[in-house]
Amino acid sequence: MPSDPSPLISAEGISRRVRELAAEVSKTYAGNEIVAVGILKGAFVFMADLVRHLTVPVSCDFIRVSSYGDAKTSGGIVRFEFDVTQPLTDKHVLLIEDIVDTGLTLSYLCENFRTRKPASLRICALLHKPARTRVEVPLDFVGFTIPDKFVVGYGLDVAGKYRNLPFVGVVSEDEKT
Ligand code: 5GP
């Protein structure tokens, strides 16, 4: 029987950091309106908490992408399953991601979103695993830098499970396979 994920970042720690991030984001965009674009499914919990602490006007939109490669890592070839519902031309776009691993997904998305001519494009990621970087993507706002471990909870899953955990935890090796 696989064991429960072992806690890496507590619910309290996440909540504190998300408030800090929201303050940083609000300061950066002071006087402007944001289009927050959540990358589903993983970012839904983080985004829901983050936007509730923003002090600038925000509209929320979502994309869903899948990447070719094995189940746990992206292969860099990204396919849109669905896209935002509005033009992004001249908008201040904030991409919201759960975790940046190799950077391949965000690298592709940034290139794609730049073609839409936003007024600005920034990235806010809850987690970053720098040990696995294959493409450097400038991350404007990062919640936590974590070691090279496969994590779940607070929106992140393994085989569809654990997205509802209030904390971020590490799953045992046998759960990953
Ligand atoms: P990248 O393109 O940066 O390699 O991959 C980013 C995506 O891979 C994330 O949005 C997420 O779906 C998945 N991913 C990477 N590392 C982890 C992890 O530790 N846990 C989970 N649940 N997903 C991960």
Task: Report on this structure.
The model has no long low-confidence stretch (mean pLDDT 93). It is built from four helices and nine strands, in the order E-H-E-H-E-E-E-H-E-E-E-E-H. Strand 3 (58-68) and strand 4 (77-82) form a beta hairpin. Helix 1 (11-28) packs across helix 2. The chain has a single domain (6-175), classed as Rossmann fold (3-Layer(aba) Sandwich). The protein has helices at residues 11-28, 44-51, 104-114, 173-176; strands at residues 6-9, 34-40, 58-68, 77-82, 92-100, 120-128, 141-145, 151-152, 168-170. The relative contact order is 0.20. It is globular. The strands form two sheets. It has a six-stranded mixed beta sheet with strand order 4-3-2-5-6-7, with helices on both faces. It has 177 residues and is α/β, with parallel strands linked by helices. 23% of the residues lie in helices and 32% in strands. The structure holds guanosine-5'-monophosphate. Guanosine-5'-monophosphate is lined by residues 42, 73-74, 97-105, 150-152, 156-158.
How much helix is in the residues?
10-25%
Question: What fraction of the residues are assigned to beta strands by DSSP?
Answer: 25-35%
Choose one word for the global shape. globular
CATH topology: Rossmann fold
Largest sheet: spatial strand order: 4-3-2-5-6-7
The biggest sheet, with number of strands, parallel, antiparallel or mixed sense and barrel status, is: 6 strands, mixed
- Whole-angstrom Rg: 16 Å
The H-and-E topology, N to C, reads as: EHEHEEEHEEEEH
Structural class: alpha/beta
Low-confidence region ranges: none
Number of strands: 9
Calculate the terminal CA-CA distance, rounded to whole Å. 13 Å
Number of discrete helical segments = 4
Give a list of the ligands: guanosine-5'-monophosphate
State mean pLDDT (0 to 100 scale): 93
Instruction: Tell me the domain tally.
Output: 1
Secondary-structure arrangement, i.e. CATH architecture:
3-Layer(aba) Sandwich
